[in-house]
Design brief:
Helices cover about 5% and strands about 40% of the residues. The strands form four sheets. Strands 2, 5, 6, 7, 10 and 11 form a six-stranded mixed sheet that branches. A five-stranded antiparallel sheet has the order 1-3-9-8-4, with no helix packed on it.
């Protein structure tokens, strides 16, 4: 798999829950909904499961003896562990409270997940408040951090999930490739409280379910240091994160 920002973000695990809990796979917040095609994480006690990670796209529907279904539809699986299962909501999932069935080598666990038409969640890289966002600087290679900040006026790429309706729908678990799958709606991105110009909003062509938002950092002198970032799309807000500006 090629996109290290996605892979490292998906492996940032929250504390396991006593009962199965299904949360937004970018923010790990239980109070945030998910949408069709978005990353989610299920936390619980998954007896008999050995850590197994998918190694190729499209993602498999069975991994390490584990299968997850949403409303009876098999979900693409990325990573299974004894306390966490990371997977994609199938694109066919309709809005509402949807049943989830996790089939394990040792038996079956059930739960539910709240699906909305759009559910933006920005991938996080640490556990600070607000956490550092999964962001690449203008060169498309360097991860944004305190030691590698972006400059005002430059374009950065924010990595998220849950963008809602797309210009075309990829196959479940597949990297979308070309032509690009763009969002039907243009998100609003606020950096340090200033609405920023969006250059591109769509799925990263090299990884399934990875929403990439290219946005200009406003050229205003007070935007410096560790600044807050939030995304809105179709009236739904993301988790608050932070990026670094020189």
């Amino acid at each position: 798999m090629s996109n290290k920002i996605l892979l490292t973000a998906l492996c940032l695990c929250a504390a396991a829950q006593a009962q199965i809990a299904i949360v937004n796979g970018a923010s790990f917040r239980g109070d945030q909904p998910v949408s069709a095609g978005s990353w989610v994480a299920a936390f619980g006690s998954f007896t008999g499961v050995s850590t197994t990670t998918a190694t190729a796209f499209p993602l498999p529907k069975t991994l390490g003896g584990v299968k997850v279904t949403i409303d009876g539809v098999d979900a693409p699986l990325y990573d299974v562990r004894s306390t966490q299962i990371t997977f994609l909501i199938p694109y066919s999932a309709a809005a509402g409270i949807r049943p989830v069935t996790v089939t394990l080598p040792s038996g079956t666990v059930t739960g539910s997940v709240r699906v909305m038409s759009a559910a933006p969640g920005i991938f996080i890289k640490d556990t600070q408040t607000p956490p550092r966002a999964a962001v690449r600087n203008q060169d498309g290679v360097t991860e944004n951090s305190s030691s590698s900040p972006a400059k005002r006026g430059e374009v950065v790429s924010i990595y998220a999930t849950g963008p809602g309706t797309l210009s075309r729908q990829p196959a479940d678990g597949a990297a979308p490739g070309s032509p690009l799958a763009t969002t039907r709606s243009t998100p609003q991105v606020f950096i340090a409280g200033v609405e920023s110009q969006v250059q591109f909003s769509g799925l990263n062509p090299d990884a399934p379910g990875l929403w990439q938002i290219n946005v200009f950092i406003p050229d205003q002198s007070f935007i410096t240091g560790r600044v807050p970032v939030r995304v809105f799309i179709d009236g739904v807000d993301s988790n608050e994160v932070a990026l670094f500006v020189q």
